[in-house]
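FAQ: What does the model actually see?

It sees only this:
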Amino acid sequence: MSRVNGGGQLGALITRKGREVQRRRAHTALARCWQTQAAVDIDAEASIAALLRRPAGAPPRVIGEIKRRSPSAGTLRPWERGDVASIARAYVDAGATAVSVLCDADFGGTPLDVRRAVRACAVPVLYKEFVLHPVQLDAARALGASLVLLLACVLDDSSLSALMDACRARGLAPLVEIANEDELRRVLRLDPRLIGVNARDLRTFEVDPREAERLVAMVPAERIVVYMSGVRERADFERVAASRADAVLVGEGLMRAPSPGAKLREILGTP
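And it is asked to produce this:
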């Protein structure tokens, strides 16, 4: 069950997503088709964790995000035919370990963008939207995603735990996102392997890098921690690299650039 109550931008997004999920659940024939696919890889979460873990002495891994717009910032990059595939390939060529695809309509995306990214590159793809029900996980798996984002600010403990288990049953790695200390304490009790620390609070859309860095330091060393939001320049990346973050998700700064791949190379300091 969702933890978001009342109005506000996040509440409106979740209300719309709930209606969308109900419509998706009504398509039972499609749901049965997804459920009859081949057996899943039960070690997928461990494989993703190993891939994202930061080697000693190395900079953080990078997840390049494809996001066309933001409710708070407006359009980041106009839609162009073939852009998802070309951007995904550019990210990987620039050194990205994984690609994130924001496939929610309010962010200019569609679930089919996940499939386009999966087909374009040979790295794990994160299915990123407001996940409320396992039917969305069936879609993520059918589209070829390897990871699914779960938001602690949206889900109560019971729903979050159930969706984590549902991800694993489908061979998907759950990446659980938190944005404050209360959410981190809640999530740690549920024993996730992958934790995302978002410097942007989705309730206010404000970015607080210092708070995010404090939270990153609180994540136990055995967990994989992904720093999310606010990294737009080389100096931002270097600041995060000074923390214990295993990986960093970079999106808006790349999508605003004329060449997202070239911008990622600039941020990473690679030729």
